Amino acid sequence: MKEDSSVAPGQDEAQRAEQDQRAQPGDEVIGVRHGMFGVSGTGDTSGYGGLVRTVSLPGSTPPPYGGYFDELVDRLREVLPDNGFDAAIEKIVVFRGELTLHVRRERLPAVARALRDDEALRFELCLGVSGVHYPDDTGRELHAVYHLASITHGRRLRLEVSAPDADPHIPSLYSVYPTTDWHERETYDFFGILFDGHPSLTRILMPDDWRGHPQRKDYPLGGIPVEYKGARIPPPDQRRAYS
To answer: Which residues form the signal peptide (predicted)?
Structure first.
């Protein structure tokens, strides 16, 4: 077996995992994290040990992609007419054995409909919608990730769409996949993404009059009033420690 020259002799699994999370050549670096986000190697779990980590997204993957990914991409290119594939797909990423198509938001319904209806693709099921907030990814701070499955062909695929914080609108896929009803509501509730065309885009977990979106990274971790009780949660560095 060929030894990985990028890993120093004696390096343990935690160090290997940490190295894997660093930016690789071709990755898209969107920020740097400081402070409280976990640790590996040093044993410092306080979050105040000068922890620094690059925030990066996988870069575009050149073909061939491997497995059924090439067949899937080639077929989608065929069924989106008039250069529709190039107009719709920003980049293709194969990362950790998963295929993600980054789709321009205005083309999302057309791509999803083609993936659902074409006999050679037949992604009949949307398993869920995940929201992500990258405050430093200027112009596309908010991401929505749709997880698709083909029951017919036993395949998986992800569609990722981005929108700027100043214009957080993404077309709803409710008309293509009705199962996205509650998933899009949850993503709106926690991240503030507005899914245009959704039949009832209301909060699903937080009270209707709740201010802000709790899973955004600019949402305060503490020091906010607790609803209905008049108490306050102190910021993390002011909380009482129990040993």
So the answer is: none
Residue in the structure block whose two tokens are 């090439």:
70
pLDDT digit string (tens) for 166-190?
999 999 999 999 999 999 999 999 9
Q: Are strands 142-150 and 169-171 parallel, antiparallel or unpaired?
A: unpaired
As separate numbers, helices (DSSP H) first and strands (DSSP E) second, the chain gives 5, 9
What are all long-range contacts of 115-122, with beta carbons under 8 Å and residues at least 24 apart? 115/76, 115/148, 115/157, 115/159, 116/176, 116/177, 118/75, 118/76, 118/79, 120/71, 120/75, 121/72, 121/75, 121/76, 121/79, 121/150, 121/153, 122/150, 122/151, 122/152, 122/153
- Rounded to whole angstroms, the Cα distance separating 89 from 107 reads 8
Q: Are 56 and 85 in contact (CB under 8 A)?
A: no
Q: What is the pLDDT of residues 10-55, one digit of tens each?
A: 434 444 444 445 556 778 888 887 765 555 666 665 656 667 778 8
